[in-house]
Design brief:
It is a single chain. By secondary structure, the chain is of the alpha+beta class. The chain contains eleven helices and 17 strands. The strands form four sheets. An eight-stranded mixed beta sheet has the order 3-7-8-13-12-11-10-9. A four-stranded antiparallel beta sheet has the order 15-16-14-17. A three-stranded antiparallel beta sheet has the order 4-6-5. The radius of gyration is 24 Å and the shape is globular. The protein starts with 34 loop residues before the first strand and ends with a strand. 37% of the residues are buried. The structure holds adenosine-5'-[phenylalaninyl-phosphate] and magnesium ion. Adenosine-5'-[phenylalaninyl-phosphate] binds at residues 1, 130, 132, 156, 162, 166, 168, 170, 262, 265, 281-286, 305-309, 311-312. It is found in: Mitochondrion matrix. Is responsible for the charging of tRNA(Phe) with phenylalanine in mitochondrial translation. This is Phenylalanine--tRNA ligase, mitochondrial.
Length: 442
């Protein structure tokens, strides 16, 4: 859940910002509008509001619901694999912090709650940071085998594999903790195990339960291990389906299971798949905390759940090199995909980047790198391909700190002229100055 800071590159002495703008120091910050409009409704803002207009515009795009979009195709393939599961994909991204964090046992001081990591509309409403935010309501609605796909939002760095909006699919299966439920578990485990035995798949497994990945005190260790085993088989079978038919067919699919920690599951795992020479983390999962089922009024039951990243899967399966492409409205991108089919993306010409540096003295109150990234994104949108902190320096006498960021401007659709890049950079500089009252250096 901890979002990364803006990517740090080894600090080097570099030329100062190649921009010349007035050094006017603005002390007052831009006033905050009293409401923000999201999905056609107005919401009151307050002192924690940090949603930006470039993020607000992403709400309702619903890429995961477009049948000929790579994210929609992946969703369809997974839903087809899990037969008998209810598929949900139309839940609003606006949730209470209680849903996103408290219901799932996140401690008060968890970094995911910070304003620097999550988007808040106001103190009572935020953009979900993961699809687990809907576990309690879905269990409470009586669903016992379900998949829920949605857009999720995290304040994060800007680069080819990080974007502040991405998509997850949550999956869960509940078993009655009685003879019938355990029989169902045993039968399905046997079916999956025999399927996987015959398949060309290499699995690095770990014990279902260990001292560092414990059974919950409410659970019988044997039952918990059976549920964890069924979870592993269910996901190995999905991975075989998704990755088995692509690439060099003689190579086995390689999967490794790793111990993990989530506040709402125990034992917990992450899964990595070896694909095109790299290990790729695709999901987190585990045995659902009994407190979640209790809160959802699901008695005498035990459940597993997983949350997987749809972009991560799609980037690998479709060979899509840049996460921003998922948001492209360019026909050269969209026309390459058709419902139900995994095809290899053919890159169209990539226009040259234009990099510009911006350095400034931080205000006395400091400035989080994610705040800077957000202003860049809000000013120039996807034209900012990467933002890197390339230098920082604290003056030995005044103790003031200066930071230098390098912004790579690149359009997916055209070549940017030097003048256009300069104009974008000027806009960024004046927005940063206006918003944070920083003093721009040159
Ligand atoms: C979670 O979000 C948990 N809610 C998952 C979970 C669900 C655990 C149910 C247990 C039970 P995590 O932050 O690791 O965990 O994200 C899950 C997956 O989302 C990752 O494995 C990855 O595939 C994807 N993901 C996470 N961050 C990003 C990102 N910045 N860009 C693209 N995909 C991401
Ligand atoms: Mg993770």
């Amino acid at each position: 859940m901890t979002a990364l800071l803006c990517r740090l590159v080894a600090p080097a002495r570099v030329a100062r910002a190649n921009i010349s703008i007035s050094r006017r120091l603005l002390s007052a910050q831009a006033p905050r509008p009293s409401t923000v409009s999201l999905l056609g409704k107005e919401y009151a803002t307050d002192d924690v509001t940090n949603i930006t207009s470039s993020i607000a515009e992403k709400l309702g795009r619903d890429l995961h619901r477009k049948p000929a979009h790579p994210l929609g195709i992946i969703r369809g393939l997974i839903e087809a694999h899990f037969t008998g599961f209810t598929a949900i994909s139309d839940v609003s991204p606006l949730v209470t912090p209680a849903r996103n964090f408290d219901d799932l046992g996140f401690p008060e001081d968890h970094p995911g709650r910070a304003l620097s990591d999550s988007y808040y509309i106001n103190r009572g409403l935020m953009l979900r940071t993961h699809t687990s935010a809907h576990e309690v309501e879905t269990f409470r609605a009586g669903e016992r085998k379900w998949l829920l796909s949605a857009d999720v939002y995290r304040r994060d760095e800007i680069d080819a594999s990080h974007y502040p909006v991405f998509h997850q699919m949550e999956g869960a299966r509940v078993f009655s903790n009685d003879k019938t439920g355990m029989q169902e578990l045993a039968n399905d485990t046997a079916r999956l195990a025999s399927e996987l035995e015959r398949a060309n798949i290499e699995i690095e497994d770990i014990p279902h339960i260990s001292s560092t990945n414990p059974v919950q005190p409410e659970h019988d260790p044997e039952t918990s291990a059976l549920v964890a085993h069924h979870l592993k088989l269910s996901l190995n079978s999905l991975i075989l389906k998704l990755f088995g038919g692509h690439g060099a067919s003689t190579e086995p699919v390689r999967v490794r299971w790793i111990e993990a920690y989530f506040p709402f599951t125990s034992p917990s795992y992450e899964v990595e798949v070896f694909y095109r020479g790299k290990w790729l983390e695709i999901l987190g999962c585990g045995v659902v905390k009994q407190s979640t089922l209790d809160r959802s009024n699901v008695p005498d039951s035990i459940s597993w759940a997983f949350g997987l990243g749809l972009e991560r899967l799609a980037m690998f399966l479709f060979s899509i090199p840049d996460i921003r492409l998922f948001w492209s409205q360019d026909e050269r991108f969209l026309s390459q995909f058709s419902p139900g089919k995994v095809t290899t993306f053919k890159a169209y010409s990539k226009y040259p980047p234009n990099s510009r540096d911006l350095s400034f003295w931080l205000p006395g109150t400091g400035l989080h790198d994610n705040d800077f990234c957000d202003v860049v994104r809000d000013t120039v949108g996807d034209l900012a391909e990467t933002v890197e902190l390339i230098d920082q320096f604290t003056h030995p006498k005044t103790k003031r700190t200066s930071k230098c960021f390098r912004i790579n401007y690149r359009s997916m659709d055209k070549s940017l002229t030097d003048e256009e890049a300069n104009a974008l950079h000027e806009q960024v500089a004046s927005r940063v100055q206006e918003k944070f009252g920083v003093e721009i250096r040159n």
